Structure formats: C-alpha cells, structure tokens
C-alpha cells in the first residue's frame, strides 16, 4: 500500500516532529536547547496558566503540530534512525489527543496472497481517521 499518514496533535503546548530515535541523549539535548530558546520566567505577558505555558506555545510553534509521512509497501517510509516524537512542552501537560488520517491506494491481493497488476481487480482509495490519547514527556 502506498499513500500518506497525516498526524495532528490537538493542543497548543505540545508538538510533533521527526527526529533521531536511536540515541536516548538526543531528546535530552533537544529539551535543553529548546529551554535555552524559550526559557520559563516572568518575562511573558501570557502567564495566567503558569510560567511554563508561554514557553510551551513557542516550542510548539517551532516544531509544529502536524506531520505528513509517506507510506510505502504498507509501512511508514522513515529513515533508518528517524522516529516520530510527541513533544510535551508543559511541565505537567496531561493527556494529549492525536488525530491520525491515513490516505492511499491499497494494492489488490490475489487468491494466493500476492499483489496483482493494477487494473486487474480490486483496489480502492479513501482514508480512515483514528484518534489516540498519548502523554509521554519529551
């Protein structure tokens, strides 16, 4: 199956990104760098929800809240070391909702389980949506 997966985190203080997923030091270094770029403190006007809220909005805006990932042969087509990160930018962010939409053309499969040539039967387009609750810290 080929197509795309679209992911959106429905929050303004969390984000999604694709980054190295092999070395556990990478998320720690990333958090340190983001904290230098958007430090907590009393220097923000928007502080009604705590000193970590406005920096979380800035970090979310830097990374973004959505990803589009190609699907090839039924699998996410990411690089060897790449992984999808749900980045929590609040100190205590709670649960997060991610909407995942999959669009693509399924390869028709013959009676023996092998793919058949295009135009020789089956197939179809369309997409599905799925929501998932997540709350890891990055």
Question: If helices are DSSP runs of H or I spanning 4 or more residues, what is the number of helices?
Answer: 2
Q: What is the strand tally? A: 7
Biggest sheet architecture: 5 strands, antiparallel
Rounded average pLDDT: 84
Quickly give the structural class: alpha+beta
CATH class: Mainly Beta
Task: Output the helix-strand order.
Answer: EEHHEEEEE
What is the first-to-last residue Cα distance?
31 Å
CATH-wise, what's the superfamily?
Answer: YjbQ-like
Global morphology? elongated
The helix fraction, in percent, is 10-25%
> DSSP strand (E) fraction?
35-45%
- Point out poorly predicted stretches: 116-138
Task: Report strand order across the widest sheet.
Answer: 4-3-1-6-7
Structure overview:
The protein has 138 residues and is of the alpha+beta class. It has one domain (2-134): Jelly Rolls, CATH 2.60.120.460. The protein is 17% helix and 36% strand. The protein has helices spanning 25-37, 53-63, and strands at residues 2-9, 14-20, 66-72, 75-76, 82-88, 96-105, 127-134. The strands form two sheets. The protein has a five-stranded antiparallel sheet, with no helix packed on it. Strands 2-5 form a two-stranded antiparallel ribbon.
Main features:
single chain, 138 residues, alpha+beta, Jelly Rolls, five-stranded antiparallel beta sheet, disordered C terminus
């Amino acid at each position: 199956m080929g197509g795309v997966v679209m992911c959106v985190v429905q929050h303004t203080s969390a984000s999604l990104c694709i980054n190295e997923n092999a070395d556990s030091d990478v998320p720690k270094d990333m958090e340190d760098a983001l904290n230098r770029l958007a430090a907590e403190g009393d220097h923000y006007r928007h502080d009604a929800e705590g000193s970590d809220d406005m920096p979380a909005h800035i970090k979310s805006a830097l990374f973004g809240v959505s990803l589009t990932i190609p699907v090839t042969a039924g699998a996410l087509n990411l690089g060897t070391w790449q992984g999808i990160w749900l980045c929590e930018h609040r100190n205590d962010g709670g649960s997060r909702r991610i909407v995942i939409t999959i669009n693509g053309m399924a390869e028709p499969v013959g009676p023996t389980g092998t793919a058949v040539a295009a135009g020789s039967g089956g197939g179809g387009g369309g997409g599905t949506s799925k929501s998932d609750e997540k709350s890891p810290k990055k």
